[in-house]
């Protein structure tokens, strides 16, 4: 299975598990409307995650991880807030508090999975080498040649 398919599968599976966990209390408390809230929440978190996975293959360069981190943060926050607002405009009966609690849970799970995937890619590409020693030396003004020996 390719990188893209495994990342999409992992993100989708993680959010689906959250949806299954939230579906029972949402159904018992709010009925069909609760299930719609769970669906909107999952979609609002899945969309930016899938977009990030698509974009991550196109970004290159030494500062790739930083670019993806900043782009992902803006995309994730903007999409979740935008889709959350749209869901409440389409279905105002969803109610702000229960819906946003559900949305926040999906958001946190998606954030954790996407961060793990990004860090795994960075580590596999060899960008993170030797821990934080090189960064600490650069900040202190030492060069790598000065610290050898």
Folded structure, characterized:
Helices cover 81% and strands 0% of the residues. It has six helices and no strands. 26% of the residues are buried.
Distance between the termini: 44 Å
% residues in beta strands: under 5%
Q: Report the total helices.
A: 6
User: What is the radius of gyration computed over CA atoms, rounded to a whole number of angstroms?
Assistant: 20 Å
Shape, per Cα inertia axes: elongated
Main sheet specs = none
How many β-strands, per DSSP? 0
The stretches of 5 or more residues where confidence is low (pLDDT under 50) are 128-140
Measured as a percent range, the helix fraction is over 70%
Average pLDDT rating: 78
Element-level helix/strand string: HHHHHH
Q: What structural class is derived from the secondary structure elements?
A: mainly alpha
Question: What would the keywords be for this entry?
Answer:
149 residues; mainly alpha; 0% strand
């Amino acid at each position: 299975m390719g990188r893209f398919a495994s990342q999409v599968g992992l993100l989708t599976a993680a959010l689906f598990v959250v949806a299954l966990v939230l579906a029972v209390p949402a159904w018992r408390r709010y009925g069909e409307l609760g299930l719609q809230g769970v669906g909107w929440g999952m979609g609002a978190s899945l969309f930016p995650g899938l977009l990030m996975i698509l974009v991550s293959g196109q970004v290159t360069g030494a500062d790739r991880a930083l670019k993806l981190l900043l782009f992902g943060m803006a995309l994730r926050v903007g999409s979740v807030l935008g889709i959350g607002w749209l869901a409440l405009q389409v279905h105002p009966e969803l109610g702000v508090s229960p819906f946003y609690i559900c949305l926040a849970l999906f958001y946190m799970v998606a954030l954790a999975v996407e961060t793990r995937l990004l860090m795994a890619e960075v580590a596999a590409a060899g960008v993170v080498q030797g821990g934080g020693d090189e960064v600490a030396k650069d900040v202190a003004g030492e060069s790598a040649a000065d610290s050898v020996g």
